[in-house]
Amino acid sequence: MRLDVVAALAQSVSMTTLLPPGARVFVAGHRGLAGSALARVLADEGHEVLTRTREQLDLRDAERTARYLAGVRPDAVVLAAATVGGIMANQRFPVPFLEDNLRIQLSVLAGAHAADVDRLLFLGSSCIYPRQAPQPIPEEALLTGPLEPTNEPYALAKIAGISQVRSYRRQYGRAWIAAMPTNLYGPGDNFDPETSHVLPALIRRFHEAAREGRPEVVLWGTGTPRREFLHSEDLARACLTLLRRYDGELALNVGCGEDLTIAELARTVADAVGFAGGIAWDPARPDGTPRKLLDVTRLRKLGFAPRVDLARGIRDTYRWWLAHPGS
Ligand SMILES: NC(=O)C1=CN([C@@H]2O[C@H](COP(=O)(O)OP(=O)(O)OC[C@H]3O[C@@H](n4cnc5c(N)ncnc54)[C@H](OP(=O)(O)O)[C@@H]3O)[C@@H](O)[C@H]2O)C=CC1
Ligand SMILES: C[C@H]1O[C@H](OP(=O)(O)OP(=O)(O)OC[C@H]2O[C@@H](n3cnc4c(=O)[nH]c(N)nc43)[C@H](O)[C@@H]2O)[C@@H](O)[C@@H](O)C1=O
């Protein structure tokens, strides 16, 4: 048999083994930005998606979570539930960012193991790399230096989650994996001006300024930090690629491979929402990490390429927010 045919067959066998067609997948956090996109993509691919709202099941409750998982016995679990927020939310509420996330991870991972779930994807975050990591950041940079102080509690919780995934792999041979997404955005994001991430915050600030005819918008920090943004739909497709094709210890980076300054992002968002006024900066607000561009070589080798460019993604997110003004 030809070598390329053998390779293609080997790949399709491993895809089928890691996430069989029609596999039943519990998506924890299915109403969130990442979880809602993941639930859509998995359902479109013919998977049965199992969900619980926070009201039905508080994932910090280990006993109830274990009981739920033992009852439904999913083939796979995607953990996209977490206490999440932008730079100010992380600074103001370090306790839930640390404790909620530790508790959710403990409940879901221990519960999944007890229910004999052999495939699991845990979502880390690019902010858990050292503040001064080399750019673009390779996966090997994890735990090689001090963290960014604005999100250290959240980062430590996420690092614990990655270690937990690795530990279950080593001790029990579980095919569990972790991903390290860059800054995400898209329909379903949080647009609260104080707790959100920068992209939805800017959509809202510029939209309101344009509507009220204000000549200037004041943004946080200096505008010089660089960030990489990935649309939630691309994140979901990347996660599906990992679930089908990846089974290793390294938490793999998930990004688009390009970044820009916050000042450049601001101008792009202002144009998309029709704000033509000035932009000023408030250096009393934190800048956070100077740069966090992920090295996505490994993800690309698995066959993933993003589809949504930033300008289109911003327009799409803006349209969604206009249709959901309470978000
Ligand atoms: N947003 C980003 O820029 C990035 C996110 N990530 C990671 O991706 C994952 C998803 O983030 P994202 O989609 O942005 O977050 P969201 O805040 O949009 O969604 C989080 C989800 O988790 C659920 N949840 C939170 N706490 C509990 C709880 N105690 N019990 C049950 N459900 C709970 C929420 O439920 P409810 O809907 O009821 O509130 C919500 O559905 C997280 O692990 C995050 O760390 C990683 C990198 C960047
Ligand atoms: C995903 C990631 O998200 C967080 O890290 P971050 O990337 O620093 O987050 P951010 O999106 O909030 O800000 C990005 C940049 O943008 C600037 N900025 C300007 N004006 C606004 C503004 O109006 N709102 C916000 N939020 N930021 C603003 C802001 O000063 C900063 O320089 C972590 O908490 C971390 O835990 C994490 O996981």
TrEMBL record:
<dbReference type="GO" id="GO:0042351">
    <property type="term" value="P:'de novo' GDP-L-fucose biosynthetic process"/>
</dbReference>
<feature type="binding site">
    <location>
        <begin position="29"/>
        <end position="35"/>
    </location>
    <ligand>
        <name>NADP(+)</name>
    </ligand>
</feature>
<feature type="site" description="Important for catalytic activity">
    <location>
        <position position="127"/>
    </location>
</feature>
<dbReference type="GO" id="GO:0016853">
    <property type="term" value="F:isomerase activity"/>
</dbReference>
<feature type="binding site">
    <location>
        <begin position="123"/>
        <end position="126"/>
    </location>
    <ligand>
        <name>NADP(+)</name>
    </ligand>
</feature>
<keyword id="KW-0413">Isomerase</keyword>
<keyword id="KW-0560">Oxidoreductase</keyword>
<feature type="site" description="Important for catalytic activity">
    <location>
        <position position="125"/>
    </location>
</feature>
<feature type="active site" description="Proton donor/acceptor">
    <location>
        <position position="154"/>
    </location>
</feature>
<feature type="binding site">
    <location>
        <position position="197"/>
    </location>
    <ligand>
        <name>NADP(+)</name>
    </ligand>
</feature>
<feature type="binding site">
    <location>
        <position position="220"/>
    </location>
    <ligand>
        <name>substrate</name>
    </ligand>
</feature>
<dbReference type="GO" id="GO:0070401">
    <property type="term" value="F:NADP+ binding"/>
</dbReference>
<feature type="binding site">
    <location>
        <position position="205"/>
    </location>
    <ligand>
        <name>substrate</name>
    </ligand>
</feature>
<feature type="binding site">
    <location>
        <position position="287"/>
    </location>
    <ligand>
        <name>substrate</name>
    </ligand>
</feature>
<keyword id="KW-0511">Multifunctional enzyme</keyword>
<feature type="binding site">
    <location>
        <position position="158"/>
    </location>
    <ligand>
        <name>NADP(+)</name>
    </ligand>
</feature>
<dbReference type="Pfam" id="PF01370">
    <property type="entry name" value="Epimerase"/>
</dbReference>
<comment type="similarity">
    <text>Belongs to the NAD(P)-dependent epimerase/dehydratase family. Fucose synthase subfamily.</text>
</comment>
<protein>
    <recommendedName>
        <fullName>GDP-L-fucose synthase</fullName>
        <ecNumber>1.1.1.271</ecNumber>
    </recommendedName>
</protein>
<dbReference type="GO" id="GO:0050577">
    <property type="term" value="F:GDP-L-fucose synthase activity"/>
</dbReference>
<dbReference type="InterPro" id="IPR001509">
    <property type="entry name" value="Epimerase_deHydtase"/>
</dbReference>
<comment type="function">
    <text>Catalyzes the two-step NADP-dependent conversion of GDP-4-dehydro-6-deoxy-D-mannose to GDP-fucose, involving an epimerase and a reductase reaction.</text>
</comment>
<feature type="domain" description="NAD-dependent epimerase/dehydratase">
    <location>
        <begin position="25"/>
        <end position="255"/>
    </location>
</feature>
<feature type="binding site">
    <location>
        <begin position="181"/>
        <end position="184"/>
    </location>
    <ligand>
        <name>NADP(+)</name>
    </ligand>
</feature>
<comment type="pathway">
    <text>Nucleotide-sugar biosynthesis; GDP-L-fucose biosynthesis via de novo pathway; GDP-L-fucose from GDP-alpha-D-mannose: step 2/2.</text>
</comment>
<dbReference type="InterPro" id="IPR028614">
    <property type="entry name" value="GDP_fucose/colitose_synth"/>
</dbReference>
<feature type="binding site">
    <location>
        <position position="227"/>
    </location>
    <ligand>
        <name>substrate</name>
    </ligand>
</feature>
<keyword id="KW-0521">NADP</keyword>
<dbReference type="InterPro" id="IPR036291">
    <property type="entry name" value="NAD(P)-bd_dom_sf"/>
</dbReference>
